[in-house]
Predict the structure.
Amino acid sequence: MVTLSLIVAMAENNCIGMDNKMPWHISEDLKRFKALTMGHPVIMGRNTFESVLGYLNKPLPGRENIVISRSGYTPPENINVPVFASPEEAIDYALRRTNKEVFIIGGAQIYKKTLDKADTIHLTQVHKAVDGDAFFPDLNIDEWTETTREDHLDHDPPYSFITLKKRVIPAKAGI
Ligand SMILES: NC(=O)c1ccc[n+]([C@@H]2O[C@H](COP(=O)([O-])OP(=O)(O)OC[C@H]3O[C@@H](n4cnc5c(N)ncnc54)[C@H](OP(=O)(O)O)[C@@H]3O)[C@@H](O)[C@H]2O)c1
């Protein structure tokens, strides 16, 4: 079965972005993002895709970039990526492109629309509150089990890599 994962770096106050950029620089987080997502389809909102283009001048390499836009966004001429009008269509497409893992990589609007569909969250918890204009939705922690944690508390800002798996609710499991 294909896993549908969200991957996000989030401050204590749920902040994930400022002016369409990440509000911190944690190089180990970028390395982890690359290691986890490499070779897998990555789904993102149009703003996040434009932020990627702003940094790299191209889509994220080695991963099929899949963009969500309701306004009919057309990528620049030399950039060839599929664009879907809803998160559901993008997820259906991505799930047919792999038998392993699909990653939803943001931003705020897309996390909000897809949080209830995900099996796994690869979370980088940044242990401070940060000013910003993009926020992750509130997580109902009762719905998630922490399966791995790696603390990096000597870093400025301190952070932890955490894996959260959706709890299987007995009624849903047919028990
Ligand atoms: N910390 C992290 O891990 C992380 C990860 C990713 C992004 N970010 C940050 O998050 C911020 C960007 O988030 P954002 O919320 O502004 O933008 P976003 O979610 O990346 O993209 C929003 C766009 O997606 C499209 N969209 C949203 N909902 C839709 C729906 N239901 N159906 C169809 N299209 C839909 C719309 O595109 P159209 O306007 O074209 O219709 C909308 O303008 C930036 O600051 C970025 O740096 C942080």
Q: What stands out?
A: The longest helix spans residues 27-37. The CA atoms of residues 25 and 126 lie 11 Å apart. The chain has a mean pLDDT of 96.
